[in-house]
Specification:
Number of strands of chain A: 0
Structural class of chain B: alpha/beta
Distance between the termini of chain A: 34 Å
Helix content of chain B: 25-40%
Strand content of chain B: 5-15%
Largest interface: A-B, 43 and 50 residues
Order of helices and strands of chain B: HHEHEHHEEEHEHEEHEHEHHHEHHEEH
Oligomer: heterodimer
Number of helices of chain A: 2
Distance between the termini of chain B: 9 Å
Strand content of chain A: under 5%
Strand order of the largest sheet of chain B: 1-3-2-6-8-7-12-13-11-9-10
Amino acid sequence: MSTEPAPEFAQILSLLTRVGFDPSIEELERLREQFELARSQAALVHCLEAARYAEPSLVYRARP
Amino acid sequence: MSAVDSEAPVTIDAALIALREGRLRATELVEGALRAGHDAGERLGIYVARFDEPARAAALGAEAAYAAGGEPLVLQGIPLGVKDNVATIDGPTTAQSLVLDPAWAEEQGDATAVARLRAAGGIVCGKNTTMEFATGIPDPSKPFPLPRNPWNAEHWAGGSSSGTASGVSVGAFLGGLGTDTGGSVRIPAAYCGITGLKPTFGRVPKSGVVPFSHSLDHVGPMARTARDCALLLGVLAGHDPRDLTSVDEPVEDYVAALTGDVSDLRIGVDPLRRVCPDRDQEVDSAFAAAVETLAQLGATVIDVEIPWYNEVAAANRITSRSEALAYHLPDLRSRWFDYFDSTRQGVGAGAFFTGADYVQAQRVRRVAQGAVADLFTAVDLVVTPTTSAPAPRLDRLIEHGWRMELTHTNYWNVVGNPALAVPMGHTRLAMPLSLQIIGRPFDEASVLRAGDAYQQNTGWHGELPLSERG
């Protein structure tokens, strides 16, 4: 399942830098790992076909 | 020095009986707890702030109330701890952060959960350690205590309700408040060998609690036993119009539900080895023994598979990171290095999810709720290990980071069902292991009944850390 348009790390990083994030080089490496993890998790939820047209519950409540 | 006085009651239930029978004075109980907190507090990093004098004053009041006769309050004279992301009038609430404006907590007064504990006669002994904004892992570069495990101080207490768990374990207080967005009540309860409940979403108000992820955050009780958690939940539960996610559902008598009988319960069993195939055999052995105990008590045991486990766990991460980033974006822009290292990494990662990812994660939550409701037509409860490993060493945690996949808690924040962690044994190295008992939404009574029945027939919850025995 494609999650296009998927963001690129460099693209996001440039946005982050522009708004003032200031990570060190070592932190940048770890952020890159976080990015890979985040995108794999996003792919997982998009792969769940059964959820594609389920109404989102943005104000979440448990079902009694 | 031993923190726990061998004569002191270690459960709320036992302390209340002793107080009501006049065998124990509230001032003795509170002084003993303060002493235990003093002995172990710094060594284990239990407290961010202590409220010794207000606690002593409240104990005198409780003692006078008992002396006056009449029906005492439900928690009259019981020493309690409160996680430091829950506002109290006694002192500052930091959420263990250099970023949080102290004025925010001052404006809150007592959080609703704290106000309810006090109105029931509970005595707040102090504010307990967490990690910054109740997420991530400890950061030794920041000026806050490192939460250590009473069973082995080289290990982590777990998080993020760290100090409440370690404090209950050593008798610094008999119960307390934690918050839970992905397991932050149940994981430290598991690691410290105590009992912790994440109630149904909306069951306990969150007003006056520093938010992290508004649709996943829960407030829950932590204590030595399921019975004590039932006592605390009876006080904490109930609608609060100040919290828009609070649900107006009737509050049951959770203590009365503790019949010791589970013979009418169908318990679904999912060991979750498939999601953590490299875990230690000790977890499987302890889990199998716990299931066998429940079966011997008369419960019907049925093998089940929790639906879409990995997808729902991913939905937790997407939701929590996105909602947290929405709170913290302005401060991350200007104060990146004031945050804990793991907070800025974790919350900053919210930027890696798109709006479509967040919406799809909410859809996953909706369909998972339906699938879990279907599962609960065949069973009354589900049990899993709370974690697939005991508490990690603190130095390795700080160096290598946190393996969230070794915990099995965050699924239940996503769907909202109540989940209880109870001790189920320990490893060869005497580190606690834990059983997780999950129920239908708003059926905390069955969850607590099963936990209590299990504890009436096992001794794990009564064990004290070797270093703390009197």
